[in-house]
Every structure is written in C-alpha cells, then in structure tokens.
C-alpha cells in the first residue's frame, strides 16, 4: 500500500536554505501544526566544534491546510556544551503533548574512540528553548538507544521501549520503571518505533518502521557498485500502524505500508483531527513531507487496524 495514492493533501517542507531538511515530527495545536525538523549542513567543510557534521533542530509552524506561518531554530547550544552524552548533537526529535505543554524526546549523540553512543533525553519546548532537560539512562544498559515511543495517559508519561514483544516503561523523575512486558513475539522481523503515540477514543495509535532484509545477490551487487543511485537502495523501510488498548497491554497491528516507495522512509509524527490523519515523514534522508489522509480511505476498520487494499 502506498499512501501517496490516497492522499487528500501532501506538502513538501521547503524553506529557503542550503541545508538538508529531514525526519520531521509533528503535533496538532488548535488549528495549527507544529513541526520539528532535523537540519544538516551538506557542505562538508562546515563542521561542528567536534569536527563532526553540523546539524540543527528547527520548529516550523503551519495551519491545518499546510500553509506556512513561521519557523525558528531551537537553541540547544548550551545543552550540547554541557552534556557529554549530547556533545555531537540531538538527533531524531519527536514532539509530544504532556500536561498541556509541548515536550520533545531526542536521542543524544556522543562519539568516543570512533564508537557511536546514543542516550535518550527529554525536554520541555518553550518557544525555541529547551527547558527541564533530562537524560534518561537505558533500562537495559545499552550504549545505543533510539526510537522510543512516548505515550501520555492520565498525565503520566510512558515509554514504548519495544513493540514486538511489547515492552512499556513508566517515566518518573528521570528514571524508568517496567510497567508491562509481553512474553510473546508475533512478527519475524524487528520492529522499531517511529511516531509518538496519540490518544484516539480510549485507545492509542502510533506508527512503527522496520528494515526489510535484502537477498544476498542484491546485497553483494550493492556492495560492489560505485553508482550512488544503487547505493541508496541498500535499505528498505516499511511502516505499520499499531492500536494499543487503554490497559496498555493489548496491541493490534496493521499490514505493512509505504508512504511513497521502497527505500528509506521515516515517520516521526502523527495527529488525528476530525476524520483525518496527519503524518510527517522523511524520504531518503534528503527531504521532509507532511501528508493528510482521510481515515475512511485508509482503514476498513480503525478499531482492528484493518487497512483497505489498493
């Protein structure tokens, strides 16, 4: 299933800059959409203070018809200077609502002895400032943590740490405590978090992604070729919708889908307004899009995650 075949409206996020915009997330506020983007400098001569590529996080505001309003650059310089765990930048920001305030969850990046280390962290977004910044230790002592799914229920923040098997933690005062862990795994492949989880009726909806395994012949060909257009096809991402019940213990999962094509796609934001689903996604780590879809065009039955066939 390709969502661009169904779309009521699609918008490429296009701001006058020489930098690359990708991996957008979003939240809905009244009649507006607040979008967070990761922005990377393509000029290899421009580096950050560590000699790594230069990146920023931006906030872009639209109305719900995708008309551009304004944008600002998040002031994260103090955090990057203060916290070793984030000294190479804040990656993959995902916006979410908590206690009627805007929050964001990041994966902080550090590099030691050529080894990448990612630590999850959250902060309250006030204007373009990050307040109450907190690092969250890995509940499993992993050196690389990414793709956590924040979920707010009764003003409590939960983290969907694994999707299959389902594993959820409750966040309090900078630490995580295990809330629920399923013993069953239903899918053969590893499923990673993508979007945040949002409330829909008495349930919670979110999107995941996973990497499709490539057959050995094509993998060998891509390893040997020098053509860039083939190298970009090394990885296939697919997405799925998930519906988590109000107990946060029972999960329904849709069939796989793409936004546009096989390749690198990354959905970090979802909102439901009236009869429409708004989502944000990045394409090939080179572009960022917003898409508006009718719920009735996607699902035969949203309560069971049954997707329509195209």
Description:
- This protein has four helices and 23 strands.
- A hairpin with a 6-residue loop joins strand 17 and strand 18.
- The chain has a single domain, classed as Tachylectin-2, Chain A, CATH 2.115.10.20.
- It has 310 residues and is mainly β.
- The strands form six sheets. Strands 14, 15, 16, 17 and 18 form a five-stranded antiparallel β-sheet that branches. A four-stranded antiparallel β-sheet has the order 1-21-20-19.
- The chain is globular, with a radius of gyration of 19 Å.
- The protein starts with 8 loop residues before the first strand and ends with a strand.
Topology, element by element:
Blueprint: E1 9-12, E2 20-29, E3 32-40, E4 55-63, E5 68-73, H1 77-82, E6 90-98, E7 101-112, E8 115-126, E9 129-136, E10 149-153, E11 156-163, E12 166-172, E13 175-181, E14 192-193, E15 198-200, E16 203-212, H2 216-224, H3 228-231, E17 236-244, E18 251-253, E19 265-273, E20 276-283, E21 287-294, H4 295-298, E22 299-301, E23 306-307
Antiparallel strand pairs: 1-21, 2-3, 3-4, 4-5, 6-7, 7-8, 8-9, 10-11, 11-12, 12-13, 14-16, 15-16, 16-17, 17-18, 19-20, 20-21, 22-23
